[in-house]
Amino acid sequence: MTLFRRSVALLIMLSVVALVSFGGGFQLNEHGARSMAQGGAFAARAVDGSAIFFNPAGLSFQKGTSFYVGTTLIATAGEYLSTGGVTTEQIKGTFFPSNAYITHTMDNGLAFGIGFFSPYGLGTEWPNPWAGDTLAVQTELKSFYLNPTISYRINDQFAIAVGASYVWSDVSMNYRVATYNSLQPLTPGKGTAELTGKGTAVNWNVGVMYKPTPQLWIGASYRHQTKVDYSGDVTFKDMGVFENLFGVDYFPGGYGKTSITLPSNVFAGIAYDFTPDWTVEADYQYIGWSSYDELALDIATGPTIPNALPPPLGGRTPQQSPPPKEKEWTNAFMLRLGSEYRLDPLAIRVGFIYDKTPQPLSKVEPMLPDANRVEFTVGLGFKILPFLGVDVAYQMILFEDRTVTAPDNGFEGTYDSSANLFGLNLSYTI
Protein backbone atom coordinates (compact mmCIF):
# COMPACT_ATOMS: atom_id res chain seq x y z
CA MET A 1 0.00 0.00 0.00
CA THR A 2 2.87 2.36 0.78
CA LEU A 3 4.35 1.84 -2.69
CA PHE A 4 0.95 2.49 -4.29
CA ARG A 5 0.50 5.75 -2.36
CA ARG A 6 3.96 6.95 -3.34
CA SER A 7 3.26 6.09 -6.96
CA VAL A 8 0.02 8.06 -7.02
CA ALA A 9 1.66 11.03 -5.28
CA LEU A 10 4.46 11.08 -7.85
CA LEU A 11 1.98 10.96 -10.73
CA ILE A 12 -0.06 13.85 -9.29
CA MET A 13 3.07 15.95 -8.75
CA LEU A 14 4.18 15.51 -12.36
CA SER A 15 0.65 16.24 -13.56
CA VAL A 16 0.74 19.61 -11.81
CA VAL A 17 4.10 20.41 -13.44
CA ALA A 18 2.69 19.64 -16.88
CA LEU A 19 -0.45 21.70 -16.29
CA VAL A 20 1.65 24.74 -15.52
CA SER A 21 4.17 24.41 -18.32
CA PHE A 22 2.49 22.69 -21.26
CA GLY A 23 2.57 23.97 -24.85
CA GLY A 24 3.45 22.89 -28.34
CA GLY A 25 2.02 21.89 -31.66
CA PHE A 26 -1.40 20.37 -32.46
CA GLN A 27 -0.16 16.78 -32.13
CA LEU A 28 2.67 15.72 -29.86
CA ASN A 29 4.23 12.27 -30.14
CA GLU A 30 7.16 12.90 -27.80
CA HIS A 31 6.06 11.00 -24.71
CA GLY A 32 9.38 9.54 -23.59
CA ALA A 33 13.02 10.29 -24.38
CA ARG A 34 13.81 6.69 -25.32
CA SER A 35 11.13 6.49 -27.99
CA MET A 36 11.78 10.08 -29.07
CA ALA A 37 15.45 9.32 -29.79
CA GLN A 38 14.34 6.46 -32.09
CA GLY A 39 12.05 8.68 -34.16
CA GLY A 40 8.99 7.53 -32.25
CA ALA A 41 9.31 4.08 -33.87
CA PHE A 42 8.09 2.24 -30.78
CA ALA A 43 4.83 0.43 -31.56
CA ALA A 44 6.48 -2.96 -32.09
CA ARG A 45 9.08 -2.85 -29.32
CA ALA A 46 7.46 -0.73 -26.62
CA VAL A 47 9.81 -1.59 -23.76
CA ASP A 48 9.18 1.21 -21.24
CA GLY A 49 6.20 2.94 -19.63
CA SER A 50 5.46 5.03 -22.74
CA ALA A 51 4.02 1.79 -24.17
CA ILE A 52 0.77 3.08 -22.64
CA PHE A 53 0.75 5.66 -25.44
CA PHE A 54 2.44 3.80 -28.32
CA ASN A 55 1.21 0.23 -27.76
CA PRO A 56 -0.07 -0.87 -24.34
CA ALA A 57 0.36 -4.56 -25.22
CA GLY A 58 4.09 -3.99 -24.75
CA LEU A 59 3.55 -3.88 -20.99
CA SER A 60 3.12 -7.67 -20.90
CA PHE A 61 6.66 -8.20 -22.22
CA GLN A 62 8.19 -6.06 -19.46
CA LYS A 63 9.08 -7.13 -15.92
CA GLY A 64 8.39 -5.93 -12.40
CA THR A 65 7.23 -2.50 -11.30
CA SER A 66 8.53 0.53 -13.19
CA PHE A 67 8.35 4.29 -12.98
CA TYR A 68 9.14 6.37 -16.08
CA VAL A 69 8.91 10.15 -15.77
CA GLY A 70 10.19 13.08 -17.77
CA THR A 71 9.62 16.17 -19.86
CA THR A 72 10.39 17.61 -23.29
CA LEU A 73 11.68 21.12 -23.97
CA ILE A 74 10.17 22.41 -27.23
CA ALA A 75 11.59 25.58 -28.80
CA THR A 76 9.61 26.87 -31.80
CA ALA A 77 10.26 29.57 -34.39
CA GLY A 78 8.52 30.75 -37.55
CA GLU A 79 7.95 33.64 -39.89
CA TYR A 80 5.52 34.94 -42.49
CA LEU A 81 6.65 36.66 -45.71
CA SER A 82 3.94 38.73 -47.38
CA THR A 83 3.57 39.00 -51.15
CA GLY A 84 4.86 42.56 -50.76
CA GLY A 85 8.11 41.31 -49.23
CA VAL A 86 7.41 42.20 -45.59
CA THR A 87 8.58 39.60 -43.04
CA THR A 88 6.80 39.07 -39.71
CA GLU A 89 8.40 36.76 -37.17
CA GLN A 90 6.38 34.65 -34.78
CA ILE A 91 7.09 35.22 -31.12
CA LYS A 92 9.38 32.33 -30.23
CA GLY A 93 7.88 29.79 -27.88
CA THR A 94 9.40 27.51 -25.25
CA PHE A 95 7.23 24.74 -23.85
CA PHE A 96 7.60 21.72 -21.55
CA PRO A 97 5.01 18.94 -22.10
CA SER A 98 5.63 16.29 -19.44
CA ASN A 99 4.86 12.60 -19.03
CA ALA A 100 4.63 10.08 -16.20
CA TYR A 101 4.01 6.33 -16.21
CA ILE A 102 3.64 3.68 -13.52
CA THR A 103 3.47 0.04 -14.64
CA HIS A 104 3.50 -3.42 -13.06
CA THR A 105 3.88 -6.73 -14.88
CA MET A 106 3.18 -10.05 -13.19
CA ASP A 107 5.00 -13.31 -13.95
CA ASN A 108 1.93 -14.67 -15.79
CA GLY A 109 1.99 -11.75 -18.27
CA LEU A 110 -0.87 -9.78 -16.75
CA ALA A 111 0.15 -6.13 -16.60
CA PHE A 112 -1.35 -2.90 -15.30
CA GLY A 113 -0.33 0.69 -15.88
CA ILE A 114 -1.40 4.29 -15.69
CA GLY A 115 0.05 7.08 -17.78
CA PHE A 116 -0.18 10.84 -17.96
CA PHE A 117 0.73 12.64 -21.19
CA SER A 118 -0.34 15.47 -23.52
CA PRO A 119 -0.86 14.14 -27.07
CA TYR A 120 -2.50 17.22 -28.61
CA GLY A 121 -1.76 20.91 -28.33
CA LEU A 122 -1.56 24.05 -30.38
CA GLY A 123 0.48 27.15 -29.63
CA THR A 124 1.18 30.16 -31.88
CA GLU A 125 1.70 33.82 -31.10
CA TRP A 126 2.24 36.73 -33.48
CA PRO A 127 3.12 40.37 -32.77
CA ASN A 128 0.23 42.66 -31.91
CA PRO A 129 -0.55 44.44 -34.16
CA TRP A 130 0.49 42.74 -37.41
CA ALA A 131 -0.95 42.29 -40.91
CA GLY A 132 -2.87 39.09 -40.05
CA ASP A 133 -4.11 40.05 -36.59
CA THR A 134 -7.81 39.68 -37.47
CA LEU A 135 -7.06 36.00 -38.20
CA ALA A 136 -4.85 35.24 -35.21
CA VAL A 137 -2.68 36.87 -32.59
CA GLN A 138 -2.39 34.22 -29.89
CA THR A 139 -3.83 30.69 -29.96
CA GLU A 140 -3.28 27.90 -27.46
CA LEU A 141 -4.83 24.46 -27.06
CA LYS A 142 -3.84 22.15 -24.19
CA SER A 143 -4.93 18.55 -23.72
CA PHE A 144 -4.13 16.11 -20.94
CA TYR A 145 -4.79 12.37 -20.87
CA LEU A 146 -4.87 10.16 -17.76
CA ASN A 147 -4.77 6.65 -19.23
CA PRO A 148 -5.20 3.49 -17.09
CA THR A 149 -4.33 0.35 -19.06
CA ILE A 150 -4.49 -3.43 -18.67
CA SER A 151 -2.53 -5.90 -20.80
CA TYR A 152 -2.38 -9.69 -20.93
CA ARG A 153 0.19 -12.00 -22.52
CA ILE A 154 -1.80 -14.95 -23.83
CA ASN A 155 1.37 -16.94 -24.49
CA ASP A 156 5.08 -16.25 -24.94
CA GLN A 157 4.44 -14.75 -28.38
CA PHE A 158 1.16 -12.79 -28.22
CA ALA A 159 -0.32 -10.06 -25.99
CA ILE A 160 -3.40 -7.84 -26.11
CA ALA A 161 -4.27 -4.67 -24.21
CA VAL A 162 -7.03 -2.15 -23.65
CA GLY A 163 -7.11 1.24 -21.98
CA ALA A 164 -9.41 4.16 -21.21
CA SER A 165 -8.53 7.83 -20.77
CA TYR A 166 -10.01 10.73 -18.92
CA VAL A 167 -9.29 13.80 -21.04
CA TRP A 168 -9.36 17.42 -19.99
CA SER A 169 -8.45 20.35 -22.18
CA ASP A 170 -8.12 24.15 -22.19
CA VAL A 171 -8.35 26.48 -25.17
CA SER A 172 -7.62 30.21 -25.49
CA MET A 173 -7.72 32.55 -28.48
CA ASN A 174 -6.88 36.21 -29.04
CA TYR A 175 -7.55 38.10 -32.28
CA ARG A 176 -8.36 41.65 -33.48
CA VAL A 177 -11.84 42.88 -34.43
CA ALA A 178 -12.82 45.78 -36.71
CA THR A 179 -14.66 48.58 -34.80
CA TYR A 180 -16.15 50.76 -37.56
CA ASN A 181 -13.99 53.67 -36.41
CA SER A 182 -15.57 55.96 -39.01
CA LEU A 183 -18.18 56.72 -36.34
CA GLN A 184 -15.49 58.05 -34.06
CA PRO A 185 -12.27 58.79 -35.96
CA LEU A 186 -10.11 59.19 -32.87
CA THR A 187 -10.74 55.65 -31.60
CA PRO A 188 -8.54 52.67 -32.62
CA GLY A 189 -9.52 50.88 -35.81
CA LYS A 190 -9.46 47.45 -34.20
CA GLY A 191 -10.52 46.00 -30.90
CA THR A 192 -9.50 42.72 -29.31
CA ALA A 193 -11.45 39.53 -28.68
CA GLU A 194 -10.20 37.15 -25.98
CA LEU A 195 -11.73 33.68 -25.54
CA THR A 196 -11.00 31.03 -22.92
CA GLY A 197 -12.69 27.67 -22.45
CA LYS A 198 -12.40 24.30 -20.75
CA GLY A 199 -13.76 20.87 -21.59
CA THR A 200 -13.55 17.18 -20.67
CA ALA A 201 -14.11 13.89 -22.50
CA VAL A 202 -13.31 10.18 -22.39
CA ASN A 203 -11.23 8.13 -24.80
CA TRP A 204 -10.25 4.48 -25.36
CA ASN A 205 -7.30 2.66 -26.90
CA VAL A 206 -6.28 -0.92 -27.72
CA GLY A 207 -3.08 -2.70 -28.73
CA VAL A 208 -1.67 -6.05 -29.83
CA MET A 209 1.90 -7.37 -29.93
CA TYR A 210 3.27 -10.52 -31.54
CA LYS A 211 6.73 -12.10 -31.32
CA PRO A 212 6.87 -14.96 -33.86
CA THR A 213 10.60 -15.39 -33.09
CA PRO A 214 12.76 -14.09 -30.25
CA GLN A 215 14.29 -11.55 -32.68
CA LEU A 216 11.14 -10.31 -34.45
CA TRP A 217 8.59 -7.92 -32.91
CA ILE A 218 5.30 -6.91 -34.56
CA GLY A 219 2.87 -4.46 -32.96
CA ALA A 220 -0.18 -2.35 -33.68
CA SER A 221 -2.39 -0.02 -31.67
CA TYR A 222 -5.42 2.21 -32.09
CA ARG A 223 -6.53 5.28 -30.14
CA HIS A 224 -10.04 6.56 -30.80
CA GLN A 225 -10.86 10.17 -31.69
CA THR A 226 -12.01 12.43 -28.88
CA LYS A 227 -14.66 15.13 -29.17
CA VAL A 228 -14.16 17.85 -26.57
CA ASP A 229 -16.94 20.39 -25.94
CA TYR A 230 -15.51 23.62 -24.55
CA SER A 231 -17.33 26.33 -22.66
CA GLY A 232 -15.98 29.53 -21.17
CA ASP A 233 -15.86 33.31 -21.33
CA VAL A 234 -15.45 35.85 -24.13
CA THR A 235 -14.20 39.41 -23.58
CA PHE A 236 -14.09 42.28 -26.08
CA LYS A 237 -11.71 45.17 -25.40
CA ASP A 238 -10.89 48.49 -27.08
CA MET A 239 -14.02 48.35 -29.21
CA GLY A 240 -14.09 52.12 -29.60
CA VAL A 241 -17.49 53.74 -29.90
CA PHE A 242 -19.25 50.38 -29.51
CA GLU A 243 -18.18 50.16 -25.86
CA ASN A 244 -20.48 53.07 -24.94
CA LEU A 245 -22.84 53.97 -27.77
CA PHE A 246 -25.90 55.66 -26.23
CA GLY A 247 -24.78 54.22 -22.90
CA VAL A 248 -24.92 50.63 -24.20
CA ASP A 249 -22.07 48.16 -24.71
CA TYR A 250 -22.80 46.53 -28.06
CA PHE A 251 -20.03 43.92 -27.71
CA PRO A 252 -20.60 42.75 -24.13
CA GLY A 253 -18.91 39.36 -24.59
CA GLY A 254 -20.18 36.78 -22.14
CA TYR A 255 -20.60 33.04 -22.47
CA GLY A 256 -19.08 31.15 -25.39
CA LYS A 257 -18.57 27.58 -26.52
CA THR A 258 -16.94 25.52 -29.25
CA SER A 259 -16.06 21.89 -30.04
CA ILE A 260 -12.90 20.26 -31.34
CA THR A 261 -12.60 16.59 -32.27
CA LEU A 262 -9.06 15.38 -31.60
CA PRO A 263 -8.12 12.79 -34.24
CA SER A 264 -7.81 9.03 -34.01
CA ASN A 265 -4.42 7.35 -34.37
CA VAL A 266 -3.28 4.00 -35.73
CA PHE A 267 0.26 2.73 -35.12
CA ALA A 268 1.75 -0.31 -36.85
CA GLY A 269 5.38 -1.35 -36.52
CA ILE A 270 7.90 -4.09 -37.04
CA ALA A 271 11.22 -4.41 -35.22
CA TYR A 272 14.10 -6.84 -35.62
CA ASP A 273 17.07 -7.63 -33.38
CA PHE A 274 19.90 -8.01 -35.91
CA THR A 275 22.19 -8.87 -32.99
CA PRO A 276 21.51 -9.18 -29.26
CA ASP A 277 22.67 -5.54 -28.99
CA TRP A 278 21.25 -3.92 -32.15
CA THR A 279 17.57 -3.35 -32.97
CA VAL A 280 15.96 -1.55 -35.91
CA GLU A 281 12.27 -0.63 -36.08
CA ALA A 282 10.04 0.84 -38.80
CA ASP A 283 6.57 2.25 -38.03
CA TYR A 284 3.62 3.65 -39.92
CA GLN A 285 1.28 6.06 -38.14
CA TYR A 286 -2.10 7.01 -39.62
CA ILE A 287 -3.84 10.08 -38.16
CA GLY A 288 -7.55 10.73 -38.69
CA TRP A 289 -7.23 14.47 -39.17
CA SER A 290 -10.48 14.65 -41.17
CA SER A 291 -12.17 15.04 -37.77
CA TYR A 292 -10.85 18.63 -37.76
CA ASP A 293 -13.22 19.94 -40.41
CA GLU A 294 -14.51 23.16 -38.85
CA LEU A 295 -13.88 25.56 -35.99
CA ALA A 296 -17.09 27.35 -34.98
CA LEU A 297 -17.27 29.77 -32.06
CA ASP A 298 -20.72 30.18 -30.52
CA ILE A 299 -20.87 33.48 -28.66
CA ALA A 300 -23.97 35.22 -27.33
CA THR A 301 -25.15 38.05 -29.61
CA GLY A 302 -25.08 41.67 -28.45
CA PRO A 303 -27.98 44.15 -28.25
CA THR A 304 -29.50 45.66 -31.38
CA ILE A 305 -28.08 48.99 -32.56
CA PRO A 306 -30.80 51.69 -32.86
CA ASN A 307 -32.39 52.27 -36.27
CA ALA A 308 -31.45 55.95 -35.99
CA LEU A 309 -27.93 55.14 -37.16
CA PRO A 310 -27.24 55.02 -40.91
CA PRO A 311 -26.86 51.73 -42.78
CA PRO A 312 -25.28 49.26 -42.47
CA LEU A 313 -25.26 49.72 -38.70
CA GLY A 314 -28.79 50.79 -37.81
CA GLY A 315 -31.11 48.02 -36.66
CA ARG A 316 -28.26 45.52 -36.67
CA THR A 317 -27.42 43.06 -33.91
CA PRO A 318 -23.63 42.73 -33.70
CA GLN A 319 -22.55 39.18 -34.37
CA GLN A 320 -19.94 38.59 -31.71
CA SER A 321 -19.39 35.11 -33.13
CA PRO A 322 -17.11 35.14 -36.19
CA PRO A 323 -18.23 32.99 -39.15
CA PRO A 324 -17.28 29.28 -38.79
CA LYS A 325 -13.79 28.58 -40.10
CA GLU A 326 -13.74 25.71 -42.53
CA LYS A 327 -10.60 23.66 -41.82
CA GLU A 328 -11.29 20.62 -44.04
CA TRP A 329 -8.12 18.83 -42.95
CA THR A 330 -7.48 15.44 -44.54
CA ASN A 331 -6.24 12.19 -43.02
CA ALA A 332 -2.45 11.99 -43.06
CA PHE A 333 0.41 9.68 -42.13
CA MET A 334 3.88 9.58 -40.58
CA LEU A 335 6.73 7.25 -41.51
CA ARG A 336 9.13 6.44 -38.68
CA LEU A 337 12.48 4.67 -38.63
CA GLY A 338 14.57 4.12 -35.50
CA SER A 339 17.55 2.18 -34.27
CA GLU A 340 19.07 1.34 -30.88
CA TYR A 341 22.56 -0.07 -30.24
CA ARG A 342 23.28 -1.25 -26.70
CA LEU A 343 26.74 -1.13 -25.12
CA ASP A 344 25.89 -1.95 -21.53
CA PRO A 345 25.44 0.34 -19.59
CA LEU A 346 25.09 2.73 -22.59
CA ALA A 347 22.54 2.74 -25.44
CA ILE A 348 22.92 4.81 -28.62
CA ARG A 349 19.75 5.74 -30.54
CA VAL A 350 18.94 7.49 -33.83
CA GLY A 351 15.77 8.04 -35.84
CA PHE A 352 14.08 9.67 -38.82
CA ILE A 353 10.48 10.82 -39.41
CA TYR A 354 8.55 11.97 -42.45
CA ASP A 355 5.34 13.75 -41.45
CA LYS A 356 2.78 14.58 -44.15
CA THR A 357 0.68 17.66 -43.46
CA PRO A 358 -3.12 17.25 -43.24
CA GLN A 359 -3.74 20.96 -43.99
CA PRO A 360 -4.95 21.77 -47.54
CA LEU A 361 -3.07 24.60 -49.21
CA SER A 362 -6.24 26.71 -49.46
CA LYS A 363 -6.72 26.44 -45.67
CA VAL A 364 -3.26 27.54 -44.54
CA GLU A 365 -3.60 30.28 -41.92
CA PRO A 366 -1.53 32.04 -39.25
CA MET A 367 -3.47 30.33 -36.44
CA LEU A 368 -1.61 27.11 -37.33
CA PRO A 369 0.43 27.25 -40.56
CA ASP A 370 1.38 23.64 -41.26
CA ALA A 371 3.54 21.94 -43.90
CA ASN A 372 5.22 18.62 -44.65
CA ARG A 373 8.07 17.94 -42.25
CA VAL A 374 11.23 15.90 -42.02
CA GLU A 375 12.59 15.19 -38.56
CA PHE A 376 15.90 13.84 -37.30
CA THR A 377 16.45 12.38 -33.82
CA VAL A 378 19.36 11.19 -31.73
CA GLY A 379 19.78 10.20 -28.10
CA LEU A 380 21.45 8.17 -25.39
CA GLY A 381 20.37 5.90 -22.58
CA PHE A 382 22.53 5.22 -19.54
CA LYS A 383 22.08 2.78 -16.66
CA ILE A 384 23.27 4.62 -13.57
CA LEU A 385 22.45 1.57 -11.46
CA PRO A 386 20.83 -1.74 -12.40
CA PHE A 387 17.46 -0.32 -11.33
CA LEU A 388 18.00 3.36 -12.25
CA GLY A 389 18.43 4.82 -15.72
CA VAL A 390 18.35 8.10 -17.63
CA ASP A 391 17.36 8.74 -21.25
CA VAL A 392 18.10 11.91 -23.23
CA ALA A 393 17.03 12.84 -26.77
CA TYR A 394 17.27 15.63 -29.33
CA GLN A 395 14.88 16.14 -32.23
CA MET A 396 15.11 18.65 -35.07
CA ILE A 397 11.93 19.41 -37.04
CA LEU A 398 12.24 21.08 -40.44
CA PHE A 399 9.07 22.32 -42.16
CA GLU A 400 8.86 22.82 -45.89
CA ASP A 401 8.34 26.46 -46.88
CA ARG A 402 4.68 26.84 -47.82
CA THR A 403 3.56 29.56 -50.22
CA VAL A 404 -0.16 30.34 -50.28
CA THR A 405 -1.42 32.13 -53.40
CA ALA A 406 -5.20 31.73 -53.18
CA PRO A 407 -6.25 30.90 -49.61
CA ASP A 408 -9.88 31.00 -48.61
CA ASN A 409 -9.09 33.70 -46.05
CA GLY A 410 -7.42 35.92 -48.70
CA PHE A 411 -4.20 36.18 -46.69
CA GLU A 412 -1.48 35.27 -49.18
CA GLY A 413 2.18 34.76 -48.39
CA THR A 414 4.86 32.25 -47.42
CA TYR A 415 5.24 30.52 -44.05
CA ASP A 416 8.50 29.07 -42.73
CA SER A 417 8.72 27.16 -39.42
CA SER A 418 11.15 25.04 -37.40
CA ALA A 419 11.40 23.46 -33.96
CA ASN A 420 14.06 21.95 -31.71
CA LEU A 421 13.15 19.46 -29.00
CA PHE A 422 15.14 18.12 -26.05
CA GLY A 423 13.81 15.17 -24.05
CA LEU A 424 14.78 13.84 -20.62
CA ASN A 425 13.34 10.83 -18.75
CA LEU A 426 14.29 8.93 -15.63
CA SER A 427 13.43 5.24 -15.13
CA TYR A 428 13.22 3.31 -11.89
CA THR A 429 12.47 -0.40 -11.83
CA ILE A 430 11.74 -2.55 -8.81
Oligomer: single chain
CATH topology label: Porin
Which architecture name does CATH use? Beta Barrel
Domains (count): 1
How many individual helices? Answer: 3
| CATH homology group | Outer membrane protein transport protein (OMPP1/FadL/TodX)
Main β-sheet description: 14 strands, antiparallel, barrel
Low-confidence spans: 1-25
CATH class category name: Mainly Beta
Proportion of residues in extended strands: over 45%
Helical content stands at under 10%
Task: Explain what you see.
With about 425 residues, the protein is mostly beta strands. It has a single domain (about 1-430), classed as Porin (Beta Barrel). Helix content is about 5%, strand content about 55%. The protein has three helices and 23 strands. A 14-stranded antiparallel beta barrel has the order 1-4-5-7-8-9-10-13-14-18-19-20-21-23. A two-stranded antiparallel sheet has the order 15-17. A hairpin with an 8-residue loop joins strand 22 and strand 23 (about 415-430). The model is unreliable at about 1-25 (pLDDT under 50).
List the helices and strands and how they pair.
Layout: H1 2-21, H2 33-37, H3 51-54, E1 64-81, E2 87-89, E3 93-95, E4 98-105, E5 110-117, E6 121-125, E7 138-153, E8 158-178, E9 190-213, E10 216-223, E11 226-237, E12 254-262, E13 265-275, E14 278-287, E15 294-295, E16 298-299, E17 325-326, E18 332-343, E19 346-355, E20 373-385, E21 388-399, E22 402-404, E23 413-429
Antiparallel strand pairs: 1-2, 1-3, 1-4, 1-23, 4-5, 5-7, 6-7, 7-8, 8-9, 9-10, 9-11, 10-13, 11-12, 12-16, 13-14, 14-18, 15-17, 18-19, 19-20, 20-21, 21-23, 22-23
